[in-house]
Design a protein that fits this description.
alpha+beta; disordered N terminus; about 40% helix
Length: about 100
């Protein structure tokens, strides 16, 4: 199969495409420290190559897919506040 027909997750020799932490951060549009924390916490599957982390592109796709499934809009927990305006002496006498 030619290179054009190869999957985006496949490097051509059957191995998954591996992304660096910086590349993961760029894809997710987050800081690289946040991407590193996601890997260290096990939220994104990764392998360690020497002293550096590599994330299989499929693992990044799975992380994004599970995030879409888990996210549900939360109803607003803030109660509507009713504010009262300051009253002058005449308003206070009329209410009494």
């Amino acid at each position: 199969m030619d290179e054009k027909g190869a999957s985006a997750c496949d490097s051509g020799d059957g191995l998954p495409r591996l992304l660096t932490i910086r590349e993961v951060a760029e894809v997710l549009r987050i800081h690289s420290r946040t991407a590193y924390r996601l890997v260290k916490d096990g939220q994104i599957a990764a392998i360690r190559v020497g002293s550096q982390w590599r994330v299989p592109e499929t693992a990044l796709h799975e992380y994004v897919a599970t995030g879409w499934r888990r996210w549900k809009p939360q109803p607003s927990r803030a109660k509507a506040r009713q504010y009262s305006l300051p009253m002058d002496d005449q308003d206070i006498k009329e209410k009494a």
